[in-house]
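Thanks for the sequence, V.! I ran DNA-3-methyladenine glycosylase right away. Repeating your input here for the record:
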Amino acid sequence: MSYCVFVAQLPPETASAHKQYHDERYGFPVDDDNELFGRLVLEINQAGLSWSTILNKEAGFLQAYDHFNIDTVAAYDESDRARLLADADIIRNRLKINAAIHNARVVQGLQQEHGSFRAWLQRHHPMSKDDWVRLFRKTFKFTGGEIVGSFLMSIGYLPGAHDEDCPIYHRALKAGAIWQQQPVKK
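Predicted structure:
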């Protein structure tokens, strides 16, 4: 079942967070590196859990991870790890917390080498999902196939965020979803 159909079938009391995410963020291009990093952290934390859990805890993640500021998270130390492990407003999983800190440091390196996290993504576009997964596994921690696929769909790099008959599909296309663009000739 697609996310579009899933959201349409949710009862009203649980639909609002999903609808807002689906209608305004999911599948749309993201230019800001901190937002890209934040999406990656959220997708990593979703592993083994429902997306509803992550959406309900998103404000907690923003607060706990300093609004996903890459440089701040990259500088986290053992006291920050302990603080995060004790924070009930996020997912308290040592592997996921360690991955966020490690991946922030990796993103810093990508920024130094390519100018930005987004530029690094653009450099590799277009690729198949399998190729993206191999690249992410080689580059980041805690990035399996589902995490990478969901992350790239959420930021418009892979198709599938919206069905063609979903009204948001056309808004994502108009906003410049990356997957629709032809590769730039070099």
